[in-house]
Amino acid sequence: MPTVAPPPPKLPLRRILQRQRAALAPAEQATLSAQAVHHLHTQRAFRNAQHIALYLPVRGEADPRGLRQHALPKQHFYLPVLSPFRDSRLWFVRWDNTTRFRLNRFRIPEPYPDYHRSRPARWLDVVVTPLVAFDAQGTRMGMGGGFYDRTFAFKRTRLQSRRPTLCGFAYHFQKTDHLQRQRWDIPLDQAVSDAGFFHFSTGIY
Ligand SMILES: Nc1nc2c(c(=O)[nH]1)N(C=O)[C@@H](CNc1ccc(C(=O)N[C@@H](CCC(=O)O)C(=O)O)cc1)CN2
Ligand SMILES: Nc1ncnc2c1ncn2[C@@H]1O[C@H](COP(=O)(O)OP(=O)(O)OP(=O)(O)O)[C@@H](O)[C@H]1O
User: Fold this and answer.
1) Where along this sequence does the record place binding of substrate (predicted)?
2) How does the average pLDDT of the chain come out, rounded?
3) Burial class (CB in 10 A: 0-12, 13-18, 19+), 83
4) From the alpha carbon of 182, which atom of ligand 2 is closest?
5) Which pLDDT belongs to residue 202?
6) Which of 127, 129, 136, 192 has a Cα-to-Cα distance from 41 of 20 to 30 A?
7) What is the pTM of this model?
8) Atom 28, ligand 1: which residue's CA is nearest?
């Protein structure tokens, strides 16, 4: 009888996908990210957006920075900053050629939390969100801090609040069959990957 090796200990999905992301060669990361950028910047709704939040990729995350290269004159860009009030919410601070950066407690570069250069989350048009996994219903799994869910919790309660559009940005291997949606989860309205653009009917409104 051949001996069967015991199955490897099961890693949680979050860790598996984080490792897979971090293992991508830089050239592959760049190619796949450029494909996702192309699928998003050619969307009419994206071209109509004026105030757009991006993020600075770390540890192999898909890289949305190319969206700035396609910017229209009316478009302004913002980056997430951990709120200095330590309330696990994000501020969105203007990203232009004068923006100065520091490392936050997760060692992610972020602009200084300048209140006068920040825009309230509800006045953004599109928020391009980092993620670890997403599914066909728009459920998002992030790094586990709950920052995006807390910051956009108002989308659940405000009747006419379709704004901002939350658009997940990822590699296609991060799309999974089904994620358990938690009570506090704010679903994505859209997602984009190297494979294309996805629109979700989130059904919470
Ligand atoms: N590029 C990028 N910027 C972002 C996010 C993100 O996911 N990606 N965030 C999305 O919300 C916010 C930061 N949230 C984060 C939450 C957890 C960890 C993290 O590394 N957690 C460790 C364990 C916790 C610890 O070190 O204390 C881990 O996962 O190993 C990083 C960022 C804002 N900026
Ligand atoms: N609106 C909220 N109010 C209070 N707690 C919240 C809220 N949203 C999320 N949380 C808390 O945040 C924690 C992390 O949530 P979750 O694992 O869904 O984070 P995530 O979406 O993966 O992270 P991130 O948005 O930072 O990428 C959970 O324990 C949850 O209780």
Assistant:
1) 56, 61
2) 93
3) middle
4) 18
5) 63
6) 136
7) 0.94
8) 143
Q: What pLDDT shows up at residue 201?
A: 86
C-beta of 143 in contact with ligand 1 (< 6 A): yes
Residue 77 per-residue DSSP state: E
Say which residues have a Cβ less than 8 Å from residue 140's Cβ, sequence separation at least 6: 129, 131, 133, 134, 148, 166, 168, 179, 185, 186, 187, 188
| pLDDT tens digit sequence for 45-63 | 999 999 999 999 999 999 9
Q: Is the dihedral of CA 104, 108, 113, 119 positive or negative?
A: negative
Three-class SS of residue 111?
strand
Tokens at 64, concatenated:
């949305």
Domain chopping of the chain, boundaries: 30-72+120-204
Is residue 13 lining ligand 2, measured as CB closer than 6 Å? no
CA distances from 144 to 37, 73, 150, 185, 198 (A): 25, 35, 12, 11, 23
The CATH number for 30-72+120-204, chosen from 3.40.50.300, 1.10.8.60, 3.40.50.10420, 3.40.630.10, is 3.40.50.10420
User: CA–CA separation, 192 vs 36, rounded Å?
Assistant: 6
ipTM for the complex? 0.94
Q: Are 81 and 118 in contact (CB under 8 A)?
A: yes
